[in-house]
Amino acid sequence: MAEYIYGVLANKPPIQQITTSTITEAEKDTLNFSSAMTRLVVKNTGTAALTFSVNGKASLTDNLQVGDTFDDSFLEFNSLVLSGTTGSSYTVMVG
Question: CB of 41 within 8 A of CB of 92?
């Protein structure tokens, strides 16, 4: 289940959508956005490492250890693939 929240953060491109989820019985979650995004924040809220890939590109792939946060801006992107083990949790903020 995902939760969607809209808001704005100062001094960076605004955050428009927040998605929180737990990976269950699957190795990957794919988030598709209805419009192009330029800001990405990913936080690993689970108990195992988490991998994410912007637009599914290997060159835009990173790993997050438990409790780590990734915050960066990109050229426009419209999807994000997250992978982990059953029970892995994350919060994704895009704008």
Answer: yes
